[in-house]
Amino acid sequence: MAAGKSADAIALLKEDHRKVEKLFKEFQSAKGEGRKEKLAREICLELSVHAAIEEEIFYPACKGKVDEELLKESLVEHDAAKLLVAEIDAAKGAGDEYFDSKVKVLQEEIEHHVEEEERSKSGLFAQARAADLDLGELGERLAERKQELTADYKAAGIPKPELTTMDQAKV
Ligand SMILES: [Fe+2]
Questions:
Q1: Alpha carbon distance 58, 159 (integer Å)
Q2: Distance, CA 38 to ligand 1 centroid (Å)?
Q3: Confidence class for position 95, pLDDT limits 50, 70, 90
Q4: Predicted TM-score of the model (pTM)
């Protein structure tokens, strides 16, 4: 990419997906608690920022221009992932016999989410590309917010999950 030119929204979000896939892969082959905790923490941070910028900026921009059901599914998937992220972030391996399993299940959830967003033609990104959206401008906003939230979360920790779709069970 040329200097000074930022990625369009979809390129930026796909880049996030690739980064987190790589971290999950590293986690699966990592040895030692310390290394695993560090990778899990990075995964949690990346996914929290990614979900936040999609929910704050990308999904609202897509609303009315892509399949509504797909958008709603993505939000529910985010909420499910946020619960696991919060759990993993809180446990950080400290004696949690389910730690590796939680990371594995999170990985599977994210793989599914990525496939739904990136699927050719019918995926959310393909629909967004076909719609009349200013992806360049959206990309700039996403990048700016991503930078801001990454700094915040690194300094203060990942905030308590804010679920946008789950309020029925009151657990
Ligand atoms: Fe995503």
A1: 20
A2: 22
A3: confident
A4: 0.92
